[in-house]
Amino acid sequence: MDFSSFLTSLGTSFVIFLVLMFLFTWLSRRPSNHVIYYPNRIMRGMDPYEGIRLTRNPFTWIKEAVSSTEADVIRHSGVDAAVYFVFLSTALGILVFSGILLLPVLLPIAYTAKNKIDANETTSEGTFNELDKLSMGHIAQKSDRLWAFVAATYWVSFVTYYLLWRSYRHVSNMRAEALMSPEVRNEQFAALVRDIPAPEKGQSINEQVDSYFKAIYPDTYYKAMVITNNKVVNKIYAELEGYRKKLARAEVIYAESKGTANPEGTRPTTRAGFMELIGKKVDALEYYDKKIRELVPKLESEQKIALKDKQQSAAVVFFNNRVIAAAAGQCLHDTMLDKWTVMDAPEARQLLWTNLSKNFYERLIRQYVVYFVVFLTIFFYMIPIGLISALTTLANLEKLVPFLKPVLEQTTIRTILGAYLPQIALIIFLALLPSFLLFLSKAEGIPSQSHAERAASGKYYYFSVLNIFIGVTVGHTLFDSFKAIEDNPNSVFDVLAASLPGSATFFLTFVALKFFVGYGLELSRIVPLIIFHLKKKYLCKTEDELKEAWAPGDLNYGTRFPDDMLVLTIVLCYSVIAPVILLFGVLYFGLGWLVLRNQVLKVYVPSYQTYGRMWPHMYNRVAVSLLLYQATMVGYFGAKEFIYTPVLIPLPILSLLFIYFCTIKYYRFFQSTALDVACRELKETPNMEGVFRSYVACSLSTEKTAEVIQFVDDLAHVTRPGSAV
Amino acid sequence: MDFSSFLTSLGTSFVIFLVLMFLFTWLSRRPSNHVIYYPNRIMRGMDPYEGIRLTRNPFTWIKEAVSSTEADVIRHSGVDAAVYFVFLSTALGILVFSGILLLPVLLPIAYTAKNKIDANETTSEGTFNELDKLSMGHIAQKSDRLWAFVAATYWVSFVTYYLLWRSYRHVSNMRAEALMSPEVRNEQFAALVRDIPAPEKGQSINEQVDSYFKAIYPDTYYKAMVITNNKVVNKIYAELEGYRKKLARAEVIYAESKGTANPEGTRPTTRAGFMELIGKKVDALEYYDKKIRELVPKLESEQKIALKDKQQSAAVVFFNNRVIAAAAGQCLHDTMLDKWTVMDAPEARQLLWTNLSKNFYERLIRQYVVYFVVFLTIFFYMIPIGLISALTTLANLEKLVPFLKPVLEQTTIRTILGAYLPQIALIIFLALLPSFLLFLSKAEGIPSQSHAERAASGKYYYFSVLNIFIGVTVGHTLFDSFKAIEDNPNSVFDVLAASLPGSATFFLTFVALKFFVGYGLELSRIVPLIIFHLKKKYLCKTEDELKEAWAPGDLNYGTRFPDDMLVLTIVLCYSVIAPVILLFGVLYFGLGWLVLRNQVLKVYVPSYQTYGRMWPHMYNRVAVSLLLYQATMVGYFGAKEFIYTPVLIPLPILSLLFIYFCTIKYYRFFQSTALDVACRELKETPNMEGVFRSYVACSLSTEKTAEVIQFVDDLAHVTRPGSAV
Fold it and tell me: What is the mean pLDDT of chain B?
């Protein structure tokens, strides 16, 4: 890629971003699109424009984003979103502070070096001259100018230490603030108990749990909700819910048919057989009504069976005291660690019900099996993809799906498919990867959704850093020089460093594309908008269905974060070698901060709260990037035959010490609630029965069943005024 | 060493043991020696012979030891002693069960092998034929007979797994039993708080601690004892105690002097100057009386100053509830781990007062510095010893201490000193080593005596295993072949294995000496007996002084255990190679069990209780010995060119899994008290003021001061009937 085509690519991306931004300005004004651009506000019962001055200025959203405070973010999207912004600001801060010193100092030093460089040593294989002159590659070997780069390496490290340390403290305080809140939060009065041993004969698990905890916490224990096997109940409940929705939908269709021309309306029909596709035609309203009335008693009897006979070896126990609940989650209860394991209860909405009763050793074994599978996925994922693309060659495709033959025989399609089939397989794999990793994390036996997402995010991070970064930079070089590394393990840094400059251009383009196109799409929400309008027009009938169609979902920082980390790692690693990359990094994180701030304040609705438990992972990964950067620099200076390279050795040691001290000081509070935080006063005495009920599964809740019956009865009054009562 | 001289050495040792045992039978009968042979019983207020049938049979003590139960040991010497016996029985069990199969099977197989072995391949360098025929060295390389030895290797491992697992469970139950006790144990109502942050202005640390814990535990917090800097108070108190003892002694001397010849008695005198060695003669009774009366108000005012102005950043806090006290020790209190660190309180008698106020980071840094010093000690201790012996050559000695010249000039003394000076330096070093390691452990900032002794015991273990075992077996070979190992790290096992048989004889002698002579001395208590009688005759005047002279002290399992481990490691490593060593191992642990059982029941008095906290360390070290044994076997089979050696590879993996699972399951309970254990009912409501007072330092206790005044006043009435009142 030469300089002009790089600029073209950059320019195109920028134009796409501008177009998308104007599209956003235009589309977000139309009231019919408000549910797509302001769902967070709408769901919180606010006016979409509340507190916003309406102008035609396309940059208003930027002003709003910049002027919003952390407290706004916490109010609209909770602490977890705010923590994600702390990460973004930290990354931005690191790059800005590094750039302030590095750009004005290193660029002139590199540019004036007057060193003729070999084509194979440049960052662009000789075609990218102007940019090359601004990079460390332009400095002669053993030159004294390298001292400036040594100083820069230190500067970037110290900026990172300082900002990381400050952020850790800030997030810790934010978490403390949130946990101290005088609001009654149900999960703060609960603890999750797993590995309950088999009860004595004649005793139910519920009685056993009660007597066990009553003995330990005589004054503060309230009661327990034993986890039950809800498979059957859930199935019936889902069926019931399905019929309820269909009934509501049929009712709307019936009401709509009552036009002026046909005042009686046409009663909608359905079929009584398999999937409602075959069988005899029946009146839909009556059919669904009948089905629901049949299912309700079946559900009720199954609920009783589940509660009585399907108790499992886990429970959520409730305390009338925040301090004791927090303490319970941190204490050893039984003398054996594999019995009566107690931990902080997650929020009710994020309990992974089926994982709770998995026992201690099953969890351990599952964890290691999953780790092994992830290891295989990271290192050998190319093998199945290669196999698939080999099997789906054009010749094979023609054999397997003969009706495509005429299409496949056209030359253009043939060429495109021939070239892109492996890539398509890869893209599909990469698109499915986060879900696959989430599935694996859940298979570990993790008790809560948020924890599973954190675990999946970690796995995704390792995948991207190991594969995309190291894979692309070192590429085949590494495998070719495997023998060399085996003989002398230190040479891995040399290999890494030698292959770095060659990939700089690739990464510049990658980062630029990522931020301009990616964030443009994010801001304009073109895809959700189109889907919503299609659904609204052709599918949705009831209010509920419509609401489902525009539901904005989660910010999903779990999958965003690994991407950000990849960019940060790349930018950090190149920051001293080719300081120009800092500009791109700053743009990526600056733009990301702006766009996501807008989305968090107006669009996304968090589906759970963890009060910043993601932060230690973020911290750790930034710190690891820093280590990777320092190792790269040691290798790169070595490759420059700079004899003072050892002056960089203290840096990785310092980083390890820094990680160690931060983790020791701050980490424990992210694992469990400090008692000093839990003991703050509450606004009101908690309603313990309410706390208890919030944890009961929908399918087991008698209230929910009563609601369904009420709904059916109300409807019967309307549609068949005579038949009911 | 040939076979006959080996037998001679063995026989001599055995005779020494027999002599010492008969000496014990004879001496322990004499009532004047009871305080040496039955101090545990005497201190517990029992009759020395209670429950013992007096016979002249020298083996009575053996019958008593064998018939005693674990409950007896716990009653007489506490759980810690019982745990040490679990270790001894486990080691004994491993060796007995191994021997039952190995001796009858392997010895014939080896003896009938009819393989002519090279002199340099035997266990005795060719001079020790009979024993060599019974060892694995007698089997030809690649022989099929080696399969029997493979099976034996597995058998020993599985026996060890089984017994270790059972013992861990047993000790865990024993600890739970002890902690569940309905007795009120003061430390179970206390927690140790360290790293208290600086209080706000105008607030004392005591007030700050009170308000902090009152907020978290409003119903259960009792009060706090803030740690104070007692340096000055302790000095005055020690002076006061010294004068009190001297006064008591002077009083006894005075009373003794009132014979029939001199009914008025001679009042003892002393000197009023430095160390009471110079200055004018004064009446001792009056002088000490005056000194004490001067010191008491000084002490009282210093006590007030200490309590008010010398509060430090640590405290012992008290709860009126066992469960809450146990929970407090396990919970995070402040959001930062380096503030308000709370842990289980050790017993009052084992608090290392000056360590308590050391802050979090100071402790961390001290720990690493100490680890580094220990590392240096283990690997380079020969250097200073070499230097010392070089400096103290005879020539130098003559120069430095010229008055010894005539002695040193005698040829015999010259020869002996010349040969033994380096050894003497080594012996002195080894004798001082345990105290030095204890000093280092205390310097880490550890809060309790028992913890410091465990830490010192660990260091001693590494020292002995690394130096004595590996050092002697591998010896210079290791350093010579260092280059070879660097090229091929796997060869370390080969080196280890190749040098093992050559040292077998050395170790046989070592073990035999150790158990016959060591345990003979232990049982007969010759040294303490002589010291006691000397002190009684020439030094002791008062009852207190006499009691001090026969105080038996602690079992001191902290320094015994590393020695036992060394023997167990050696015996395990040779168990399959030269199964005869198992006999010696069984004798060592069997005799040890018997002798120490006697000592624990009748002699030693534990100075603290930790309820088995030493066990996980014992467990771990036995497991590590097992690993070492397995690694040795892999190497030794490799040296035999046995191509099926890889069938042994699963063993170390199995061991690692075993260690991992045991540790996960059981270890946590040894770190902190399980709440299920703490919640058991108490015999009586604890007297919280008594609990609190038990933690007040002697030098700060007003009661102790009052006692001293009372004592002086009482004495004044007796010695100067007119002067008082």
Answer: 83
Number of domains in chain A: 3
Which of B412, B444, B476 is the last residue before a domain boundary? B444
Q: What CA–CA distance (Å, rounded) separates B212 from B209?
A: 5
Q: pLDDT-based confidence at B325, cuts 50/70/90?
A: very high
The answer to whether residues B494 and B474 touch, using CB atoms and an 8 Å cutoff, is no
Across the A:B interface, residue pairs with CB atoms under 8 Å apart total 102
Q: Which domain holds residue B436?
A: 360-444
The residue-averaged pLDDT of B562-574 equals: 87
pTM: 0.85
A669–B336 CB contact, under 8 Å: yes
* CB contacts, 8 Å: A333 with chain B: 674-676
Structure tokens at B571: 């015996």
The Cα of B446 is separated from the nearest Cα of chain A by a number of Å equal to: 18
Residue A388 neighbours by CB distance under 10 Å: 16
Residues in chain B within 8 Å Cβ distance of A653: none
Tokens of B374: 């220990």
Q: CA–CA separation, A507 vs A570, rounded Å?
A: 7
The token pair at B696 is 């007040």
B616 and B571 within one domain = yes
Mean pLDDT of B273-287: 79
Of A328, A335, A664, the CB nearest to B674: A335
| A176 to chain B: closest CA residue | B335
Q: Report which secondary-structure segment, H or E, holds B680.
A: none
Same domain, residue pair B656 and B705: no
Residues of B contacting chain A (CB within 8 angstroms): 172-173, 175-176, 212, 215-217, 219, 323, 326-328, 330-338, 340, 364, 664-669, 672-677, 679
Question: Any residues with CB less than 8 A from the CB of B599 and at least 6 apart, and which?
Answer: B522, B523, B555
Q: How far is A475 from chain B (nearest CA, A)?
A: 30
> Is A332's CB within 8 Å of B673's CB?
yes
Instruction: Flag if A327 and B326 touch (Cβ within 8 Å).
Output: no
Is the same domain home to A92 and A241?
Answer: no
pLDDT of A489 strictly over 60:
no
In chain B, % of residues over pLDDT 90: 34
The residue among B165, B336, B368 with the most chain A CBs within 10 A of its CB, best to mutate, is B336
Residue A552 and residue A50 in contact, taking contact as beta carbons nearer than 8 Å: no
Candidate from B323, B327, B664 with C-beta closest to A337: B664
Q: Are residues A130 and A44 in the same domain?
A: yes
Per the domain annotation, does A78 fall within a domain?
yes
Decide if pLDDT at B45 tops 50: yes
Q: How many Å apart are CA A612 and CA A674, to the nearest integer?
A: 14
For residues B293 and B364, membership in a common domain is answered with: no
Nearest residue, CB atoms, B216 vs list A173, A664, A676? A676
Cβ count within 10 A of residue A485: 16
Statement to judge: residues A541 and A572 lie in one domain: yes
- Residue at B367 is within a domain: yes
What integer pLDDT is reported at residue A418 of this predicted model?
63
A214 within domain boundaries: no
Q: How far apart are the CA of A412 and the nearest CA of chain B, in angstroms? A: 58
Neighbours of B96 (CB within 10 A): 17
Task: Give kind and range of the element (H or E) at residue A473.
Answer: helix A472-480
Handedness of CA B248, B249, B250, B253 (dihedral sign): positive
Co-location of B20 and B166 in the same domain: yes
**A187, part of any domain:** no
Q: What is the spatial distance between Cα B461 and Cα B449, in angstroms, rounded to a whole number?
A: 18
Contact (Cβ atoms closer than 8 angstroms) between residue B576 and residue B634: no
Q: Do B519 and B383 have their domain in common?
A: no
pLDDT at B154 over 90: yes
Which residues face B281 on adjacent strands? B271
Encode pLDDT of B207-248 as tens digits. Answer: 999 999 999 999 999 999 999 998 999 999 998 888 888 888
